[in-house]
Amino acid sequence: MTALARGWHARNAVSHNVLSPAETQAFDRLGYHFPLRAFSAAEIADYRARLEAFESGHGGRLAGQLRNKPHLLFTWADAMVRHPAILDAVEDVLGPDLLVWSSSFFTKEARDPSYVSWHQDSTYWGLSEPDVVTAWVAFSDSAPDNGCMRVVPGTHTLDQLPHRDTFAENNLLTRGQEVQVKVDSSQAVDVVLAPGEFSLHHVRLVHGSDPNPSGRRRIGFAIRYVPPYVRQVAGPGDSAMLVRGQDRHGHFEPEPRPRADFGEAERAAHARFTDQAARILYRGTDKPVPR
Ligand code: NI
Q1: Which one of 4, 49, 112, 226 has the fewest beta carbons within 10 angstroms of its own beta carbon?
Q2: Cα(69) to centroid of ligand 1, in Å?
């Protein structure tokens, strides 16, 4: 049984909390599903206000490793990654036992040249099988004119594609990695989301995004979920946080929930776990692991 087939069988043992059987089949065929709603306009505005209040005291944006695993630093981000509306949808795809393996903000300021090259998430993550789903939560609206995510339907059924590292200046990815095969961008679909909505995408789906020439800030929060049978195979250690069901495998070191926002213990745990994760993501390069 292939890894993908294993995921398929796991999925068919579970319920349809949010996605109908037809939508689950569409996810299997296309590799993504949207829009789903997790937060009301007022709720997501409150989350955005908390994020931006922190940013205004720290140079105006989350820089360096603060972008990654913020759910270890902030109680509001912890609440987000375990929000039932998100977990119910992810459970429909990955089954009842769920770990948050990582999370990252992908922010494009107004008139920001930052972009994301065409890539598969699975390329450098070092995970044992492609049973990994991202919930991409829109803090702002995300539309073609402010650099929304774009996906190429069905590409998740391809095997791992070769990528090359560019380390290009305005690329938001760790290594500026891009697929080496030609992407037919005429086939790409714009993942248009309103604030408080989210999309799901498969770890092998080819996706990317353009710069933001608009006058509006575009903020997305990507949460990476795995079932506990997935393992890290590229590094000596990795960590994750159980958010639903049970972990009968123990492949990941459990991460602590934050009790206070940006507290001393929270910052120490975050630094240790993001440093360990960065060593996996940057393996085989001569780039210094960023702080
Ligand atoms: Ni990606």
Answers
A1: 49
A2: 15
Give me the residues paired with residue 254 across strands: 240
Q: What's the gap in Å between 179 CA and the centre of ligand 1?
A: 12
Cβ-proximal residues to 97 (8 Å cutoff; 6+ apart), any chain: 227, 228, 242, 244, 245, 246, 247, 248
Position 14 pLDDT exceeds 80: no
Residues with CB under 5 A from ligand 1 (ion): 121
CA of 132 from ligand 1 middle (Å) equals: 12
Mean of pLDDT values over 177-203: 94
Spacing, Cα 40 to ligand 1 middle (Å): 25
Supply φ then ψ for residue 71, to 5 degrees.
-70, -5
User: What residue spans of the chain are helical by DSSP H?
Assistant: 3-11, 21-30, 41-56, 75-81, 84-94, 264-281
Distance 121 CA to ligand 1 centre (A): 5
Residue position matching structure tokens 């004119």: 145
Residue 287 binned pLDDT confidence (cut-offs 50, 70, 90): confident
| Spatial separation of the C-alpha atoms in residues 203 and 131, rounded to whole Å | 7
**Structure tokens belonging to residue 11:** 């999925």
Mean pLDDT of 223-250: 95
pTM equals: 0.94
Locate 24 and state its tokens. 């689950």
- Judged against a pLDDT cut of 60, whether residue 9 lies above it is answered with no
Strand order in the sheet with 189-190: 116-119, 207-209, 149-151, 189-190
Instruction: Give CA–CA dist 205/106, Å, rounded.
Output: 17
Report CA(101)–ligand 1 centroid distance (Å): 14
